[in-house]
Amino acid sequence: LLPQARKMSGELQWLLIRNTSSFLQRRKYGKKVTFTTEPNNLKSKNSYKYNTLVNKKAVAVVAAPDNKGVVLCTKKKSAQRKPATMFNRTVIRSDLRHTNKVIRKVLGTSGYRSDLI
Prior knowledge:
The chain is of the alpha+beta class.
């Protein structure tokens, strides 16, 4: 493992992967737009703001495997270098109003950005 002083910042990581990521998809819709297919990217935009590979906090809401409820995935701060265990996954099986309330509460108390809530 690298010492604490040798770890790269998120900004430096973004400069390295922004044009060379394997998840990139370039499309032309009037103006040139670059999308990404990386997992847990909420908007599918190739930007530092929505990139889940370089940001310390990321969130995703996906359908549960059995289509009964949703899975809330939040990024762990302690497992940044371990992709297999990087996300906490919580299955929420309730009605839409209660699910929305639980997601807002979890993200609000964990200090996630307000644009992700």
